[in-house]
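Q: What would this chain look like folded?
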Amino acid sequence: MMDERIDILETLYVAEQTFDAGDLERNIKTWSDEVLIETPFGSANSLDSYKQWFHQFYAQTSANGGTRHYVHNPIVLVNGDRAEIMAYLYIINASTGKFLGSAKIHERLKKTSAGWKFTYRSVESDQALEM
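A: My prediction, written as structure tokens:
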């Protein structure tokens, strides 16, 4: 069970770091064939709409100095081939180190032949995020 949780968290950490790096090719590999993301900066419900969302949001964050997303206090629940993560997210400006905001994240994943992959990601801001 512990190894499963480590693999699940690694999927989350890869998703955050590859977003910050603008690496869509690696980021998209964290998703399953089921896609739903809901954020204060838009939503997507397919791989194609996710790619479009990724490019638009990354362009916005890059224009303002880039971001670093830090996941805190993750709680991982595993139920067979499905899992959920609830955690806090801190967002920092990569260029200035300025704190941009915090959020609650809720993630759902499923175990595939290629490992744990997202089916759902939700970001709920604790306050108005500055970009």
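The mean pLDDT is 96.
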